[in-house]
Amino acid sequence: MSEREVLISGAGLAGPALALALHRHGFRVTVVERAAALRDGGYKVDIRGAAVEVLKRLGLFRAARAADTAMRHVTYVRPDGRPIATLDASLLMGRRGDDLEVMRTDLTRILYGATAGDVDYVFGDSIETLDERPDGVAVTFASGVTRRFDVVVGADGLHSATRRLVLGDVPLRHLGAYISIFDLADDLGLDHEEVFHVAPGRMVFAYSTGVGEPAKAGLVFASPPLPRTADPRQVLRDRFAGSGWRVPSFLDALDAAPDLYFDAMSQVELPRWSAGRVVLLGDAAHCPAPSSGQGTSLALVGAYVLAGELARGGGHAAAFARYEAAMRPYVARNQELGRTMAADMVPGGRLKVALLHHGMRSLRFNPWKRQIIERVTRPVHLAAGAIELPSYPMAAAV
């Protein structure tokens, strides 16, 4: 029997990317999203290596490139706000060739726009139960509706409810830090610029993609796991009390920030990504942590590979096995990168902060700075390209 009816839980990035690829392969796709509409907010994300090629094969590269943040400068500042060093953003972040940096919201809307007329999106609902049967999965939604699907995909993020339904509670790997990102009023005078302020055990950043655009603030701090009941806003006030630069005004803005993102730097490590007719995708299967900068790329590549393997046929079990076999080494390389980068994001002492600042100051004048940055960012590019993308014939974009 042909397995062509697919339900995807989650309309973030991985879900719409998979929906698009599946539609191109002739599948009938439904996407269910707990939120009442596409989520706004979020932060800028990198698209590198194999993920760039996926966007090209899906016909979305030009749209994504048009949405590039075009960040120009990165500045490190002292506690009093005086600049330590200003460097070219593309150079410092190690961008190569067609690498992109886009706002998460923009990429989500590009993916949604490419699928909205062909994919059934159900907002304001979620999966309540999954009952696998010989002919498919009977899905009961929170709304009370029950439908049958051949395959169910959990693309619902780090704290995946779909994963919990089929695999139970899975402990996450804590990487020793927390991160928060939220909108600010655009009063920082930033024009395609990002500013960093680093102190022992803490890092603060802010950026804007243009004059008049909302600025984003980010707060990162080292910490063991916190109680689940902890109030994120109070935690941030306590951890960043007495900080310099613009941090007091950032803390004042917390109460008015409706889009506050706060979570541990965590990774998902699973012995398998599927159970029966249910398979996991993106962060739900293998979150590499924000420190890797590769979560979006893993989601795009995973969506492309999963869709292609389902289209190859042979039944869902064989397709899921091929999907895992193709993706596992790539995921492992990027999760290793996430662990390394998490340890470097929040220097643990004054000496390490001083060395970082000295490195930024001296780098401006070093005639070999391009080669130095190339060497430092080489692990990122190796991880981003650590998969040979299979070729899957699919319908062309229209």
Number of strands: 18
**Intertermini distance:** 29 Å
User: Gyration radius, to the nearest Å?
Assistant: 21 Å
State the share of residues found in helices, binned by percent: 25-40%
Which class best fits the helix and strand makeup?
Answer: alpha/beta
Low-confidence stretches: none
CATH fold node name of the domain at 5-70 and 98-171 and 267-346: FAD/NAD(P)-binding domain
Largest sheet: 7 strands, mixed
Give, in spatial order, the strands making up the sheet with the most strands: 5-4-13-14-15-12-16
What's the arrangement of secondary structure elements?
Elements (H helix, E strand, L loop, with lengths): L4 E5 L4 H11 L3 E6 L10 E4 L2 H8 L3 H6 L6 E5 L5 E6 H4 L7 E4 H12 L4 E4 L3 E7 L2 E6 L4 E4 L1 E4 L6 H7 L5 E12 L8 E7 L2 E7 L6 E8 L9 H8 L7 H6 L8 E7 L6 E2 L2 E3 L2 H4 L8 H18 L3 H30 L4 H14 L5 H16 L14
Parallel strand pairs: 1-2, 1-11, 2-7, 4-13, 11-18
Antiparallel strand pairs: 3-6, 4-5, 8-9, 9-10, 12-15, 12-16, 13-14, 14-15, 17-18
Helix pairs in contact: 1-5, 1-10, 2-10, 10-11, 11-13
